[in-house]
Amino acid sequence: MLILTICSFGCVHGVSPQGESPLRNPEYHDISHLASPSDGLREKDRPPSHQTGGQALGRVVLDDAKYLLTAPLRIDATDALILGGVAAGIGGLMAVDGDIRKSFQNNQGKTKNDVAHGLETAGTSYVFLAGQLGLIASGYWFRENESGDKLYRTALISLEAQMFTEATTGFVKIAAGRRRPSSGRGSHSYTPFQDFSFDRSFVSGHAARAFTVAAVFADSYPQPVPFIVYSAASLIALSRIYLDEHFSSDVFAGAAIGYVIGKALSWRHMEKNKDVGLTFLPYVPNTEVTVGLTLHYAFH
Questions:
Q1: In-domain check, residue 40
Q2: Which end of the chain is less congested by CB atoms within 10 angstroms, N or C?
Q3: DSSP bridge partners of 292
């Protein structure tokens, strides 16, 4: 799964949302046609009677999962070169993980400890989940404004990307089985698939999560947002080394996974024109029987 994810690293560098699809997928999912509640939905935009909003949403998630898993089929020589560079970077850090750990542990302080623990809490999955749900709700509430609509769409993509990142890092943790530095077993202690525990060092879930969300929001907003979100993600990642929860290679690999997933899904759900994309809308038919959710996307 680590290779499947990072192999698309080269496919997402240096490409803007207004350009070609980064993973060379000819399909873009329409993710931004947000209708005004007063306008209602045209008949052709309403979901088929046999397909609920949940089913439509499930289809998009499954399509995105397939898109990420089949990324190795779309790499070229440039992508392979970048993949090799990322793998070499991880390997190089593994060779000096012990030295980097000592450097961090020899520079401890009360204020640094307090800041690091605060960053640790801020980088947990439930804090990110709560934050993104809050952004989705805020964006939806103000969706009639362009800024609210943009926040709503961006947070939806970010939430989906986070879910894929959580699944990917969980699998890699179990598959690698690397002991945390605080266990005292050194940097080369691996027990793959031994006890199926997520409490493992490789890769850093905090770093992956932070860079996933940062990549999505950096794609959608101009400066200083990219600088802010990537700086915050970097601080969260470094706090994991400082607190002796991860080796440097764990953090680098996690950041790479998060960056790739965030970029890939962000660009997948963007069209060449900024006003197209995926839509989640409340569906209220002309009856008093039920309400539901409709999801609309277009293929190009």
A1: no
A2: C
A3: 283
The answer to whether residues 281 and 294 touch, using CB atoms and an 8 Å cutoff, is yes
Q: Residue 192's domain spans which residues?
A: 2-30+55-296
Whichever domain contains 73, its CATH number is: 1.20.144
With respect to residue 234, please indicate whether it lies within any of the assigned structural domains: yes
Share of the chain above pLDDT 90, in %: 57
Q: Which helix (H) or strand (E) holds 280?
A: strand 279-283
- Point out which residues pair with 296 in neighbouring strands: 279
pLDDT in tens, 41-92: 334 444 444 455 567 778 888 999 999 999 888 888 998 999 999 999 999 9
Is residue 163 situated within a structural domain? yes
Looking at the domain assignment, is residue 36 inside a domain? Answer: no
- Report the domain count for the chain: 1
Helix, strand, coil % in the chain, rounded to nearest 5: 60, 5, 35
| Element containing residue 294 per DSSP (H, E) | strand 292-296
pLDDT tens for 154-188 read 999 999 999 999 999 999 999 999 999 988 888 88
pTM for the structure as a whole: 0.75
